[in-house]
């Protein structure tokens, strides 16, 4: 594989040790699965606009498409392994929000989803992912090796982006479409009080 467009940090990322979890038939309908842990952050401004990032062309995986505000994987270390109140995942999200967008983060509501995503002939993703909700005005300083650009979008603008992606005019990550259609549009009118509309103990098979 040609990796001339990658910087040193991107080349090192596949060496990171992720957390793997076995999902039995009692948790997700279907056969037992071995999934790695992941997370996605959906970040709204106080004007209720959603932050979409475009992944850098220098990314090791899925370079270039539009995606949710932030996503990555908790690492296999004591801090990010902690299960209580999803603290390990929150610490991982803080780490990646700083690395990608240059911002700290401290207010999350969570639900859990599973992603089974393919990208192209090279990359795919099979994971159980926590979905972290944030509503806050933030100042960003993105790392260009992580983020090509970012945009705050209204519901209508996000629908238009997904429509253009379906027409092949732009690219979005496959898990972003799942998140948007499965959760974002349902939550959007309730971002002022999201708690009644999430079930943190439910695993969604998507």
Question: If you had to describe this structure to a student in words, what would you say it looks like?
Answer:
The protein has 206 residues and is of the alpha+beta class. The chain has one domain: Nucleoside Triphosphate Pyrophosphohydrolase. Helices cover 24% and strands 28% of the residues. It has helices at 8-12, 78-81, 87-101, 155-166, 174-187; strands at 20-23, 33-44, 50-55, 66-67, 70-72, 109-118, 124-135, 147-153, 203-204. The strands form 2 sheets. Strands 1, 2, 5, 6, 7 and 9 form a 6-stranded mixed β-sheet that branches. A 3-stranded antiparallel β-sheet has the order 4-3-8. The longest helix is centred in the middle third of the chain and has 15 residues, at 87-101. The protein is globular and about 40 Å long. Residues 24-32 and 112-124 have low confidence and may be disordered.
User: Major sheet: size, sense and barrel closure?
Assistant: 6 strands, mixed
CATH superfamily: Nucleoside Triphosphate Pyrophosphohydrolase
Mean pLDDT: 78
Provide the domain count: 1
Oligomeric composition of the shown chains: single chain
Counted by DSSP, the helix tally is 5
CATH architectural label: Alpha-Beta Complex
In percent, how helical is the residue content? 10-25%
- Low-confidence spans: pLDDT under 50, at least 5 residues? 24-32, 112-124
CATH topology description: Nucleoside Triphosphate Pyrophosphohydrolase
Catalytic activity: isopentenyl diphosphate = dimethylallyl diphosphate
Keywords: Cholesterol biosynthesis, Cholesterol metabolism, Isomerase, Isoprene biosynthesis, Lipid biosynthesis, Lipid metabolism, Peroxisome, Steroid biosynthesis, Steroid metabolism, Sterol biosynthesis, Sterol metabolism
GO cellular component, one term: peroxisome
Function: Catalyzes the 1,3-allylic rearrangement of the homoallylic substrate isopentenyl (IPP) to its highly electrophilic allylic isomer, dimethylallyl diphosphate (DMAPP).
